[in-house]
């Protein structure tokens, strides 16, 4: 494991070496798994609607969403959307459409290096309303109940101005029937939500900026909790991958397993910031808490066992003593790992809450 520090730096800081490695990996993945594809209708009567059974919008007025129920204009626009997705998807986004339900799409976005979402898989179910494109598409995130951002809620809803006609933000940031597309929605989610600082909320969404020092501390703490949620979602996706992405999920985590484990261990030890890169032997800005450390030690063990079960080659990484990599405390993790004091930071502002925690000591940080 002597080259682990180098692996951490290359992977998390998104350097040139890692960028080239990602290109090769994505090229190989596209050869095995198309970035955009259409799932054909099931012919077997016993498998009717099996291809969409786990889609969030699958049961919503099916009779109203058959191909022949759409206006010619809406159907043509959906076909145009398919073509745009087929030709223009970024390397880290994959989409499936459905022949039997042209109103539905499923997309996955791979978490980018240099963010607390790194190496995660984030699935989104999309529905074209019958009045599309005059009405923005509906989007649901498979969060499994774990909060990832103020803009991506644990109930699966997204707070994105592009999905609204009358919402916060400038006019060109809201849904425009003549110009906006599903591709634009997916790229916006990737850029504005699944990014390096998920709690850097735009002013027009109600977050008031604070001084740089406490904001930095709170940002680091919140990124830790985002990574905890990211790992919990990894475990959920591995245990039950969304339909038509089963092999994609398995292959992704076979390729990323060691990097995820190395990074997790470095975060637990406080050697690097979540989503950041090493700064000497100790990262003095890594404000990891007892809550984060305890949670990640358990999650690390669960990830290791799940990756081995998935077929990852981790013999060299694990070495001769598997027990060294397993947490002695196998207690059940809480369903929602974000501490209440961090939530209070978002509501009342970091300076006030940090003052209560550090100076008055009336709120426990754990």
Summarize the topology:
Layout: H1 4-12, H2 16-32, E1 36-39, H3 72-88, E2 93-98, E3 104-110, E4 121-127, E5 138-141, H4 182-193, H5 212-239, H6 246-269, H7 290-309, H8 315-318, H9 340-348, H10 350-360
Parallel strand pairs: 1-2
Antiparallel strand pairs: 2-3, 3-4, 4-5
Helix pairs in contact: 1-6, 5-7, 6-7, 9-10
InterPro entries: UBC, UBQ-conjugating_enzyme/RWD
Keywords: Membrane, Transferase, Transmembrane, Transmembrane helix, Ubl conjugation pathway
Transmembrane segments: 341-363
Summarize the structure.
This is Ubiquitin-conjugating enzyme. The chain is α+β, with helices and mostly antiparallel strands. It has ten helices and five strands; from the N terminus they run ααβαββββααααααα.
Overview of the structural elements:
The chain has about 375 residues and is α+β, with helices and mostly antiparallel strands. It folds into 2 domains: about 35-205, Ubiquitin Conjugating Enzyme (Roll); about 215-275 and about 285-360. The chain is built from 10 helices and 5 strands, in the order ααβαββββααααααα. Strands 1-2-3-4-5 form a 5-stranded mixed beta sheet. The model is unreliable at about 205-215, about 280-290 and about 355-365 (pLDDT under 50).
């Amino acid at each position: 494991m002597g080259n682990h520090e180098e692996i951490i730096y290359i992977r998390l800081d998104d350097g040139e070496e890692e960028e080239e490695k990602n290109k090769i990996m994505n090229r190989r993945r596209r050869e095995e798994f198309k970035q955009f594809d259409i799932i054909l209708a099931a012919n077997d009567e016993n498998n009717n609607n099996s291809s969409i059974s786990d889609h969030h919008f699958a049961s919503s007025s099916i009779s109203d969403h058959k191909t022949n129920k759409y206006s010619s204009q809406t159907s043509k626009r959906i076909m145009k959307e398919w073509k745009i997705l087929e030709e223009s998807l970024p390397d880290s986004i994959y989409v499936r459409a459905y022949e039997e339900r042209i109103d539905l799409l499923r997309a996955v976005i791979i978490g980018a290096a240099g963010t607390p979402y790194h190496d995660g898989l984030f699935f989104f179910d999309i529905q074209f309303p019958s009045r599309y494109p005059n009405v923005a598409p509906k989007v649901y995130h498979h969060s499994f109940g774990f909060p990832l951002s103020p803009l991506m809620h644990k109930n699966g809803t997204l707070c994105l101005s592009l999905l609204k006609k009358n919402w916060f933000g400038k006019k060109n940031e809201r849904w425009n029937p003549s110009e906006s597309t599903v591709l634009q929605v997916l790229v916006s989610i990737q850029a504005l939500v699944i990014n390096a600082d998920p709690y850097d909320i735009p002013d027009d969404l109600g977050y008031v900026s604070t001084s740089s020092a406490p904001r930095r501390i709170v940002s680091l703490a919140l990124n830790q909790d985002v990574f905890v949620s990211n790992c919990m979602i990894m475990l959920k996706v591995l245990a039950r991958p969304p339909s038509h992405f089963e092999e994609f999920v398995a292959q992704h985590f076979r390729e990323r397993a060691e990097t995820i484990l190395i990074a997790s261990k470095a975060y637990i030890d406080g050697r690097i910031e979540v989503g950041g890169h090493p700064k000497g032997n100790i990262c003095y800005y890594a404000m990891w808490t007892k809550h984060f450390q305890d949670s990640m030690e358990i999650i690390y063990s669960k990830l290791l066992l799940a990756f081995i079960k998935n077929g990852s080659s981790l013999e060299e990484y694990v070495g001769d003593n598997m027990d060294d990599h397993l947490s002695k405390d196998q207690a059940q993790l809480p369903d929602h790992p974000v501490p209440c004091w961090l939530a209070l930071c978002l509501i009342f502002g970091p300076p006030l809450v940090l003052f209560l925690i550090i100076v008055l000591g009336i709120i426990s940080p754990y």
